[in-house]
Design brief:
Glutaredoxin; two-stranded antiparallel ribbon; about 25% helix
């Protein structure tokens, strides 16, 4: 008898729930449900691959970052208060991070044109990745259910990942606060 591995739906994917009559018989669809289990990367996990457009109109992939340590940080929306605070903190710490061999890359569901506007308005000098379909954000576990002003909503979970030169996750932080986060990260990295 052939045994197949169970089908495990991805977070946010709709699945059809089936049930059969008591005592057996063919299963009948009864409802759709949405999977809410979210991916959470751990240190040592391989960083999910990506190839996304940037604020400059170029593309950047995980392969382009191999050979150097990289901070990939996920933020909900360009030109909002918290995201601007966080981006400016990374901008202001970029020299020290680069001197220690660490690159910085931001990722959000914004379109490249909006990211270019954000970059120019705030003088950002590191790449911003556009992931409007949220596929990469989901692969990193940075998109899903979160609490916002006491309500459960679905969106970008402010997260930070340190990816080693070999492409493995060194640090994965979810639900970080915009204010003071970069200083805490630098301390954790010993910078």
């Amino acid at each position: 008898m052939l045994s197949c591995p169970p089908l495990v739906p991805r977070s946010g994917e709709r699945i059809r729930l089936l049930t059969g009559p008591p005592g057996g018989g063919p299963a009948q669809p009864v409802a759709f449900a949405t999977m809410t289990e979210q991916v959470r990367l751990q240190p040592g996990d391989p960083a999910p691959d990506f190839d996304l457009p940037t604020d400059s109109g170029d593309h950047l992939s995980l392969a382009d970052l191999r050979g150097r340590r990289t901070v990939l940080y996920a933020y909900p929306a360009a030109m909002t208060a918290g995201c601007t605070t966080q981006a400016c903190d990374f901008r202001d710490s970029l020299e020290a991070l680069n001197a220690a061999g660490v690159s910085v890359v931001g990722i959000s569901p914004d379109e490249p044109a909006k990211l270019a506007e954000f970059r120019d308005a705030e003088g950002l000098t590191f790449p911003l990745l556009a992931d409007p379909g949220t596929e990469v954000l989901r692969a990193y576990g940075a998109y899903g259910e979160k609490k916002l002003y006491g309500r459960t909503v679905t969106g970008v979970i402010r997260s930070t990942f340190v990816i080693g030169a070999d492409g493995a996750v060194e640090i994965a932080q979810y639900g970080v606060k915009a204010t003071g986060h970069v200083a805490r990260l630098r301390q954790e990295l010993g910078l």
